[in-house]
Amino acid sequence: MFKNVKSIGFIALLALVLLLAACGGEEEEDTGSGDNEGGEEASGTELGETDLSVPYVAWAGAIARTPLVQQVLEEVGYTVDITQVEAGAMWTSVANQDSAFMTASWLPVTHQAYQEQYGDDVEELGNFVDEAPLSMTVPSYMDVDSIEDLKDNEELGEAVDWTVTGIDPGAGVMESTETAIEEYELDNWELSASSEGAMLSELQTAVDNEEPIVVTGWQPHPMFATMDLKLLEDPQEVYGGDGDRIGAVAHTDFQEESPAAYEVMQRLLEDYDQDMENELLAAIDEGAEPEDAAAQFLEDNPELLEAWTEGLGE
């Protein structure tokens, strides 16, 4: 009988051991799963949609900063296609969700018409530059200081063929300049559209020969570092007074569709300032390709790259 009791006791003990072992295995498995969940939290917000299209206009600042944004996002695990377009196409593609976000909005003045048209479909992510003044611009050797000085200025008008040399026709600064011509009653003057490159070429030629010229200008821009120029005073504030803010604008579903990219942009925009932009602009002005200037900046500032990407994506 005692043998039977011992046998039963042994069997019960063995069953208990097996049960505990099974529970322990489940606990270990659950712990492993917990570690994975913790890993997901440590690796950060989900990437979501990883193919991102980012349009920008062919203006100096946008050419400089956009490859930087691209490379930071690619560090996290995104595939980023950056494309040069005109301002109207930039806004349209973001509003229609053909693009994730843009890197060259100028608000509240320069791109006011686009904001009014697409405002319900887009959101501002933040600013690259908080104040970016715009106005008609001339070499400092010219004896004019205000847009008002152009009115009925026969000598200057005839010298420059009554022409303000502009950039691409879709640019907000062009619309503001057309408005300025009307508001300041510059009846004989007209705005000539071209491109930023063509405008800069004409400006450089005029400066080299100390000839008069009136162009559409804005800051920050390397032309103010390489040439002695002045923005004409704008007492009516047609161009927005202290200037626009240059920012990133996304479609309203960007955060939901690509959460980690949204977080990267929030962090980057928090730190980005005009000094960073000037550093990129200077490198490009000295001959670096924009993507190389961006790569060098990130190499020289690893703490920024870490801060912008830590805990996110891959």
UniProtKB/TrEMBL annotation:
Every ABC-type glycine betaine transport system substrate-binding domain range: 52-299
Keyword Cell membrane belongs to the record: yes
Residues in the signal sequence: 1-21
Region described as Disordered: spans on this chain: 27-47
Acidic residues bias (residue ranges): 27-40
Main location: membrane
Subcellular location per the Swiss-Prot or TrEMBL entry: Cell membrane
Keywords (A to Z) from UniProt: Cell membrane, Membrane, Signal, Transport
PANTHER family the UniProt entry points to: GLYCINE BETAINE/PROLINE BETAINE TRANSPORT SYSTEM PERMEASE PROTEIN PROW (PTHR47737), GLYCINE BETAINE_PROLINE BETAINE TRANSPORT SYSTEM PERMEASE PROTEIN PROW (PTHR47737:SF1)
Protein name: Glycine betaine ABC transporter substrate-binding protein
